[in-house]
Write a structure and sequence with these properties.
This protein has 121 residues and is of the alpha+beta class. 18% of the residues lie in helices and 31% in strands. It has 2 helices and 7 strands, in the order ββββαββαβ. The protein has a 7-stranded mixed β-sheet with strand order 2-1-3-5-6-4-7. The relative contact order is 0.22.
Length: 121
């Protein structure tokens, strides 16, 4: 499994030591994508305090690191969101964990995911 970390404050991708960066360009539009290599990937955000709450959502249609980046950016922009972690599952529902100091509005997450071009499962 390859890991790339995204700093939500700067939006910069930070490649984990010795691992490939899948956040590179390309746009899939929900179809096959040349920027993806077929491996499942994980994108994590900046570490947050243990006292925060995490809520999981399933998102369909993502196929590569660019998809992960789009969802991470849109969901990360919701008020109160401290971090977003995405476990990409091509051809299935990817797991998106949203960490926040308090409850997060599921409708706001749905709208952000749809803005990025994907859907909640």
């Amino acid at each position: 499994m390859e890991t790339t970390r995204t700093d939500l404050l700067t939006g910069a991708s930070v490649e984990a030591a010795g691992e490939a960066n899948l956040m590179g360009g390309g746009c899939c539009g929900g179809g096959s994508c040349a920027c993806s290599n077929g491996a499942e990937s994980t994108t994590e955000s900046v570490a947050v305090p243990a006292a925060t709450a995490g809520t999981e959502f399933l998102v369909t249609g993502m196929t590569c690191g660019h998809c992960v980046s789009s969802v991470t950016e849109e969901v990360g922009a919701i008020d109160g969101v401290e971090s977003v972690e995405v476990v990409l599952k091509k051809g299935g529902a990817s797991r998106v964990t949203v960490t926040s100091a308090g409850p997060i509005d599921a409708d706001a997450v749905r709208a952000a995911v749809e803005e990025a071009g994907y859907q909640l499962a």
